[in-house]
Amino acid sequence: MNVQTRPPRQPLNGVDTPTLINTINFVAGQPDLAKFQFRASNEWLDGTHSRTTMRDFTGAGGEQTHVMPYSAESDHPTVLCGGDRAPTPVEWLLHALATCLTAGIGNIAAARGVKLTKVRSFVEGDIDLRGILGISDDVRNGYSDIAIRFEIEGDAPREKLQQIVEQARARSAVFDVLANGVPVSVSVSGK
């Protein structure tokens, strides 16, 4: 297999670019290291309020543990009979998209030697709740449309900054899942 290696770069935009490039080059030669499984566990707290914990995952050839467990809570707003103690699950989806694309922008800009001075994004998701409320079988449960707009500035021409955003979109795991779908299985265990 012909593996193309990338030239070294200095750290930029808070990205350890040499380690990023070395990791890409290393994994290109050992594809099994690229196989990861991320996991999350969720516990119902009360009403529509629940907490998810993300502690460990497999990847890079073995079991990995975050430096600390991370948790995120979700709830419904009061207008939807919740306690509004956290963002809704569908808002977390918008967060996942924005953060995945933004992480890609940071990495890709650093790898291309572009110093970023500003990256902001604004995400909107349109949803018709008649689907999840069971009012209409003709309305899907999830978003009918998601749009994200970026404001990006750096020491590169506008066209190059747009190419960085496009490359982040093309390599985003969350964008891929949202745009192309993924099989999801649901099972039940317990008493």
Report the order of strands and helices.
Answer: HEEEEHEEHH
Distance between the termini: 51 Å
Low-confidence stretches: none
What structural category do the secondary elements indicate? alpha+beta
Shape: globular
**Major beta sheet summary:** 4 strands, antiparallel
- Tally the helices: what do you get? 4
Oligomer: single chain
| Radius of gyration based on Cα positions | 20 Å
Instruction: Let me know the number of strands.
Output: 6
Residues in helix, %: 25-40%
Mean pLDDT: 94
- Residues in β-strands, percent: 25-35%
Describe this structure in words.
With 191 residues, the chain is an alpha+beta fold. The protein has helices at 17-29, 89-111, 158-171, 173-180; strands at residues 37-38, 41-46, 49-59, 62-74, 116-126, 145-154. The strands form two sheets. Strands 1, 2, 3 and 4 form a four-stranded antiparallel β-sheet that branches. The protein has a two-stranded antiparallel sheet with strand order 5-6. The longest helix has 23 residues, at 89-111. The protein is globular and about 55 Å long. The model has no long low-confidence stretch (mean pLDDT 94).
Short description, anyone?
With 191 residues, this protein is of the alpha+beta class. The chain has helices spanning 17-29, 89-111, 158-171, 173-180, and strands at residues 37-38, 41-46, 49-59, 62-74, 116-126, 145-154. The protein is globular, with a radius of gyration of 20 Å.
Top keywords for this entry?
30% helix, four-stranded antiparallel β-sheet, single chain, 6 strands, two-stranded antiparallel sheet, 191 residues, 4 helices, alpha+beta
